[in-house]
Write a structure and sequence with these properties.
about 425 residues; alpha/beta; three-stranded mixed β-sheet; binds zinc ion
């Protein structure tokens, strides 16, 4: 590691005299990358920063620990040679619409290409989106092949059952005026509450009203694309899409209290099938564990549901979450379509989601939805009937309708064992 040191001098973000001639303006929604200007949030030169917060979302804390332990140079600049996307995508009309994308930086994919002139001047601009290729090896997909639902074609689904995909990681880059507008609050009010509720982590919310972009310390989103990523922007090409919120317990560990992994796997199977018949598929995975309330809250709710009088029933499903967390859902689907707009999506032919909140948000953002696909009944684990029936009764889409109150009381899950 190169022996490089940064000054120990601490600069308080609350100082208002931090505007420098090197600081570039950000014109969110401008027509071209050059007119928009790069988001500069790296720490190697404080004079060029034009955003609040730091790169890598929640991992910025681990980066700080590496620096503190002496294993990571604070002035390291990434060598971006050969890191660019295997398939160049965009720019799409949504990239230059300040209202369509407010939680990602569309020019954050391959900034070394979009902002070449600034790289040459020495600006340390970091990618916030990255794209690569992968092969998926999934037991459910092998089963789908065995059952004859999916057939290897050597291109999308290989002879050995692996699925070829392009995957895209998108870090959050929030344009505060746009975020405030989506939530229907004033920018000032949003800044005040963000400052207060993060324990005063970002004084610039209050002191630097000129800084409009924030890199929040939250999880990223990942898109898995089946077929040519450029086809996502073509409304005439059939598109199958699942927008999936993280559920570690089910997605990774196969816990049977919800439908998350089965629905995700069904979405993958159908996305691959769509690509095989000349269409394109996309699964977007949002790090919003436990309805964005976190796993600790989620597990407390599971216990409360299973211990309540009368047992775990669909009739009381949402109530228990609200009692523990204070709200039944904190996901704010208002921002979810931003990732879809990054890919230029205008029309979804098959939407794999039963959530009315997700559907409403996608349609409201200007994307047409043709068919809504609910999870097939045979894929729902027994203990997850409580969740699915409660959601259907609360307005989730399902071709076979919802149960009434008496019916919901009869849908029961396991007790604490
Ligand atoms: Zn789940």
């Amino acid at each position: 590691m190169a022996e490089t040191k940064k000054s120990n001098h601490i600069i308080l973000a609350s100082h208002t005299n931090l505007k420098f001639k090197e600081t570039l303006p950000v014109n969110w929604g401008a027509k071209t990358a050059t007119e928009r200007g790069p988001v500069v949030a790296s720490m190697t030169n404080n004079k060029t920063r034009n955003a609040i917060g730091a790169h890598s979302g929640s991992y910025t804390v681990y980066r700080a620990l590496s620096i503190a332990s002496g294993k990571f140079s604070p002035v390291h600049k990434p060598d971006l040679h050969n890191t660019e996307a295997p398939t160049p995508i965009g720019p799409y009309p949504q990239w230059s619409d300040a209202t369509k994308i407010v939680t990602h930086d569309p020019w954050g994919l391959d900034p070394q290409i979009h902002f070449k002139e600034y790289f040459e001047k020495g600006y340390d601009i970091r990618p916030t989106i990255a794209m690569t290729q992968a092969h998926l090896q999934l037991p459910e997909v092998y089963e789908a092949i065995k059952a004859g639902r999916l057939k290897p074609d050597g291109k999308i689904v290989k002879e050995n059952g692996d699925i070829r995909v392009t995957k895209v990681a998108l870090e959050p880059v929030w344009y505060l005026p746009g975020v405030a507008e989506r939530l229907n609050v004033s920018e000032g009010e949003l800044r005040k509450i963000l400052f207060q509720e993060t324990g005063g982590m970002y004084p610039e919310f209050i002191t630097r009203r000129d800084l409009k972009v924030w890199l929040p310390p939250i999880g990223s989103s990942t898109a898995y694309i089946f077929g040519d990523p450029r086809d996502l922007a073509k409304p005439e090409v059939e598109l199958t899409c699942r927008v999936h919120d993280e559920c570690n317990g089910s997605d990774v560990f196969g816990s049977d209290i919800c439908t998350c992994r089965p629905y995700l796997m069904y979405g993958i199977e159908d996305a691959a099938r769509t690509a095989q018949r000349g269409g394109v598929g996309i699964i977007v995975y949002y790090r919003k564990e436990g309805r964005a309330l976190g796993e600790v809250t989620k597990f407390l709710v599971y216990n409360a549901r299973k211990r309540q009088e009368g047992g775990d029933t669909a009739a009381t499903y949402f109530k228990r979450t609200e009692c523990v967390a204070g709200t039944e859902d904190a996901r704010f689907q208002e921002f979810m379509p931003d990732a879809l707009h990054f890919f230029g999506i205008k029309k979804i032919h098959n939407l794999h989601s039963m959530s009315n909140m997700k559907y409403d948000s996608i349609v409201k953002s200007g994307i047409e939805v043709v068919n809504r696909i609910s999870i097939p009944a045979e894929l729902i684990p027994a203990d997850a009937q409580v969740e699915i029936e409660a959601k259907k009764a609360a307005g989730y889409f399902s071709a076979d309708g919802a149960k009434d109150v008496e019916g919901l009381k009869k849908v029961k899950g396991r007790d604490i064992e």
